[in-house]
Hints:
Order of helices and strands: HHEEHEHE
CATH topology of the domain at 63-141: Nucleotidyltransferase, domain 5
Largest sheet: 4 strands, mixed
Number of strands: 4
Strand order of the largest sheet: 2-1-3-4
Oligomer: single chain
Number of helices: 4
CATH class of the domain at 63-141: Alpha Beta
Distance between the termini: 85 Å
Shape: elongated
Amino acid sequence: MQNNRKRKRYSAMAEINVVPYIDVMLVLLVIFMITAPLLTQGVQVNLPKVATAALPQKQAEPIVLSIDSRGNYYLNIASNPHQIIDPETMQKQVASAISASKNSTGRERQVFVKGDGSVGYGKVVEAMVLLKKAGAGQVGLVTDPTRTSSRS
Length: 152
C-alpha cells in the first residue's frame, strides 16, 4: 500500500494547463473590442453648418456646377448657365475648360459644386465623381456663410 501512495504522489500530471490560453483569449477579445468600432465606415454624424470665409479668387473664373433641389445640373461656363445640362455634356465642357486653362496659364482652374440643401448626398457625390472624371484635380463645396448652427 505504501508503494501506491508514493506512485500517486510522483506520477506525471496528464491535464493541460489552460490558464495561459484564457489570458491570451482575453487579450485578443479586448483588442477586437477596441478596434472593431474603428473599422466601421459609416459613422452617423450631424454635419455642422458654420460660417466660412470666402476663398481668395484666382485669375480665372472658377467652374461652378450647381445642383437644384430636383437633382438637375447647371454649369456656369455653359452657353446658357440657367439651362439644365446633362451629365455627359457637362463632363465634356468641364474637361475642355480645364485643359484650356492648363495650356494657357499652367495652373488648373478651380472647380466647385454648389448643391441645394435638400438634394440628396448621393447626387452631390455623383457630381463630384463626374467632375473628377473630367479632369478636375480638386473639387470644392460651396456653402452659405450666413447660415450658422445654434451649437457652439
